[in-house]
From TrEMBL, chain A:
Subcellular location: Cytoplasm
Matches recorded under InterPro entries: ExoRNase_PH_dom1, ExoRNase_PH_dom2, ExoRNase_PH_dom2_sf, PNPase/RNase_PH_dom_sf, Ribosomal_Su5_D2-typ_SF, RNase_PH, Rrp41
Family, similarity comment: Belongs to the RNase PH family. Rrp41 subfamily.
Subunit note: Component of the archaeal exosome complex. Forms a hexameric ring-like arrangement composed of 3 Rrp41-Rrp42 heterodimers. The hexameric ring associates with a trimer of Rrp4 and/or Csl4 subunits.
Pfam families: RNase_PH, RNase_PH_C
Descriptive protein name: Exosome complex component Rrp41
Recorded superkingdom: Archaea
Residues in Exoribonuclease phosphorolytic domain copies: 23-152, 155-219
From TrEMBL, chain B:
Known partners and oligomeric status: Component of the archaeal exosome complex. Forms a trimer of Rrp4 and/or Csl4 subunits. The trimer associates with an hexameric ring-like arrangement composed of 3 Rrp41-Rrp42 heterodimers.
Name of the protein in its database record: Exosome complex component Rrp4
Protein task: Non-catalytic component of the exosome, which is a complex involved in RNA degradation. Increases the RNA binding and the efficiency of RNA degradation. Confers strong poly(A) specificity to the exosome.
Gene: rrp4
Occurrences of domain S1 motif (ranges): 71-143
MF (Gene Ontology): poly(A) binding
Cellular component aspect of the GO annotation: cytoplasm; exosome (RNase complex)
Record SUPFAM superfamilies: Eukaryotic type KH-domain (KH-domain type I), Nucleic acid-binding proteins, Ribosomal L27 protein-like
Domain of life assignment: Archaea
UniProt keyword annotation of Transmembrane helix present: no
Signal peptide residue numbers: none
PANTHER family in the cross-refs: EXOSOME COMPLEX COMPONENT RRP4 (PTHR21321:SF4), PNAS-3 RELATED (PTHR21321)
């Protein structure tokens, strides 16, 4: 039983939405969805849908915020009022401010900010629909938008959350599992370099569970990474085909 | 000895690479700032296309911000007039500055009024970058052959990748379009193009042709393709105009 007394996994090990414990939700991605942004991406993990847009590098205003040796990253993570079941006030909450910081610090590990001193790179992340795992979905989307904008970075970032529900580790938890479960651990990595850029843990896991959860997330991140790469490659392949049809 | 120093390449000619893709291992010669080194491995940091030439790697990014370099020719847009200089948008994260001393205007005459009369907000100008060191904004100059205010023709913006290909590898494409349409085409380093000299119809045709090659797949477009395209469009338009 979960915290709320809800049964989230049945006798056959099938989860509330019909998935196996180590199964990801259906993932869809698209890049270059906004024309006015230098780079943009729309990413869905199941019902969680996030739109990320990158503007820059551009002149930073106010000027005193700029750094003489590198660009600053400004990240705004925001949940749309209609993204949750009950209307969320559009004003930034403590949680959103914190998540903006967490996402920014993860992206800073990858972006070569020293190439553009005295400028800013603005990243706007809008959660259009929230169903658990929004911070990892946001990171995946933001890194793709950065790549689409042509901003040099070490590697793409992919993230996924592992949770503990009814005493069992489950991959890519949704809202019901997040609120009814015992633990939630978002992980984000630069998969090609094998470096972890985000690791948070809410709840408790034993050492063995932690190790197992890491293993599960790394495997899933590699899967997501493949989709990310394919989506970016497809953008250029698709444009080529359209050209031929004309 | 040679065997050891030769790099191991993981990419082929014209491969599309993504950030984090391994390009080579060993000792690699590259001038691209978009290739980074970790240990003795070289990775790409952008979405781009690699060109391999005798173990040398060039990486053309699909999108990139224009970083000014001295002697670059740029097409700028005046955005503000200061007491002794103009602020110029040069399609870059850094705003350019054109000091009075770098124009034909005498410094003793410089008042905001004379400056405004000489170049107003919204004017397009062909300029040269004379200094840029990342601590100060790029300094531009109007002194030089062909530099000055753009009064005729049209200015368009293309993608940064197409601009670098047109500038450094496929000049012939620009020359062909110019010849076919009877216009003069100037490609600025900051991905802006100035088309001038022809009738309005011909200028529009040149723009159409430039937009046509402004795709990620432009390397597959041949000169004869573009000649055919211009002739076809020309015939259509001449017929329409009776």
């Amino acid at each position: 039983m979960g915290k709320t007394g809800l049964k989230l996994i049945d006798e056959n090990g099938i989860r509330i939405d019909g998935r196996k414990p180590d199964q990801l939700r259906p993932i869809s991605m698209d890049v270059g969805v906004l024309k006015n942004a230098q780079g943009s991406a729309l990413v869905s993990y199941g019902k969680t849908t996030v739109l990320a847009a990158v503007y820059g590098p551009r002149e930073a205003l106010p000027r005193h915020m700029t750094l003489p040796d590198r660009a600053i990253l400004r990240v705004r993570y925001h949940m749309a009022p209609f993204s949750t079941t009950e209307r969320k006030s559009p004003a930034p909450t403590r949680r959103e401010v914190e998540l903006s910081k967490v996402i920014r610090e993860s992206l800073e590990a990858s972006v070569f900010t020293e190439l553009y001193p005295r400028t800013t790179i603005d990243i706007f992340i809008e959660v259009l629909q929230a169903d658990g795992g929004t911070r990892t979905t946001s990171l995946t989307a933001a890194s793709m938008a950065l790549a689409d904008a042509g901003i040099p970075m070490k590697d793409l970032i992919a993230g996924v959350a592992v949770g503990k529900v009814n005493g069992k580790l489950v991959l890519d938890i949704n809202e019901a599992e997040d609120s009814g479960g015992e633990a939630d651990m978002p992980v984000a990595m630069m998969p090609n370099l094998g470096k972890i850029v985000l690791l948070q843990l809410n709840g408790t896991l034993t050492r063995d569970e932690f190790k197992e959860a890491m293993k599960m997330s790394i495997k899933a991140i590699k899967e997501i990474y493949l989709i990310q790469k394919q989506t970016l490659r497809d953008k250029y392949a698709k444009m080529t085909e359209e050209e031929k049809e004309e | 000895m040679n065997e050891i120093s030769k790099p191991m390449l993981y990419v082929q000619q014209r491969d599309i690479v993504l950030p984090g893709d391994l390009i080579a291992e060993g000792k690699l010669e590259t001038t691209s700032i978009y290739v980074y080194k970790e240990g003795n491995r070289y990775y790409s940091s952008v979405v781009g296309m690699v060109e391999v030439k005798d173990d040398k790697i060039a990486l053309t990014p699909m999108e990139h911000a224009y970083i000014p370099r001295p002697n670059d020719m740029v097409i700028g847009l005046i955005t503000d007039v200061g007491p002794t200089y103009w602020e110029v948008d040069i399609n870059s994260p850094y705003e350019g500055q054109l000091p009075v001393g770098e124009t034909i205007l005498r410094q003793t005459q410089a008042t905001v009024d004379t400056l405004r009369k000489f170049l107003g907000i919204g004017d397009q100008v062909l300029l040269k970058v004379i200094a840029f060191d990342r601590l100060k904004d790029p300094v531009l100059s109007m002194r030089g052959k062909g530099l000055g205010k753009i009064t005729v023709g049209k200015v368009i913006e293309i993608s940064s990748m197409t601009a670098s290909i047109l500038l450094f590898r496929k000049r012939s494409l620009v020359e062909t379009i110019a010849k076919e349409t009877g216009t003069a085409i100037f490609v600025g380093n900051n991905a802006r193009i100035w088309i001038s000299g022809g009738e309005p119809l011909m200028e529009d045709l040149a723009i159409l042709a430039l937009k046509k090659i402004d795709t990620p797949d432009m390397s597959s477009i041949s000169i004869s393709d573009i000649v055919d395209y211009i002739r076809e469009e020309k015939a259509k338009r001449v017929k329409q105009n009776g």
